[in-house]
Specification:
Length: 251
């Protein structure tokens, strides 16, 4: 067993999850990199970090979440943090819900983080209070009809966070939300569109992936009240945007 405090980051092989993994590694943590289908990228990332391991699981399978936690709980001596970052982001709209997209989004984006959190709080052993950090989206405060099933799934997860906090049996534990704005390229975005869309916020600036990692590290210390959500989006959630910025940048 590693002597470092441990964190599991789901969906950590790529994008924001990888940035969070690097942030914790740089702060001296042992990082468990979960992947779904990106095994090679996860292993490359693990080799680049001072203390890391990888683990694969299909979070669309409800049983996989519990098995994942139970497996790691036997290996990690001081497992303090779970970061639920894995997510699917598929297009459907409020006028044309795609049942397959809806079911996939609800399983991966809402059910899996809750099942992981419940199992983590049941099985993980830590030297101090444990932290569950669920990555949601600024869309929970600034919704629009695009990516309809995705947005519903993030609203469901956001609603679960205070309920999980209320149900926690150990007062040292904390359950948090972390809500990013537009940070990385979406779908078929070109560079010029990224520059426009990612500045559609109150500060007219691009939010960087490392800012999300810094916020996750802050939440790992447990300074906020359990059940709170921290928005890291340069004020995007305070706007009212009629469409996803992916499309607003093309208008």
């Amino acid at each position: 067993m590693t002597l470092r405090p441990a964190v599991l980051v789901t969906g950590a092989a790529r994008r924001i999850g990888a940035a969070i993994a690097r942030g914790f590694a740089g702060a001296g943590w042992h990082v468990v990199i979960h992947y779904g289908s990106s095994r090679n990228e996860a292993e490359v990332l693990a080799r680049s970090l001072p203390s890391a391991q990888t683990i694969g699981a299909d979070l669309g399978n409800p049983d996989a979440a519990t098995i994942l936690i139970e497996t790691l709980a036997k290996q990690l001596g001081d497992w303090r943090v779970l970061v639920n970052c894995a997510s699917v982001f598929e297009l459907d709209t409020a006028t044309e819900l795609d049942p397959a997209v809806f079911n996939h989004a609800l399983r991966v984006n809402a059910a899996a983080p809750v099942l992981l959190a419940q199992a983590f709080l049941k099985h993980a052993q830590a030297n101090s209070g444990r932290r569950v950090i669920c990555v949601t989206d600024q869309k929970i405060a600034n919704p629009n009809p695009d990516f309809f099933s995705y947005t519903m799934s993030k609203h469901a997860l956001a609603a679960a966070i205070p309920m999980l906090a209320m149900a926690a049996s150990d007062p040292r534990d904390r359950i948090y939300g972390l809500a990013p704005g537009a940070i990385l390229a979406s779908h078929d975005q070109q560079e010029a569109e990224i520059e426009r869309s990612h500045r559609m916020n109150l500060l007219v600036r691009k939010t960087r992936p490392d800012e999300i990692a810094t916020a996750a590290l802050f939440l790992s210390e447990g300074w906020l009240a359990s059940g709170d959500t921290l928005f890291i989006d340069s004020g995007q959630h305070l706007l009212s945007q009629p469409r996803d910025v992916l499309f607003l940048a093309r208008e």
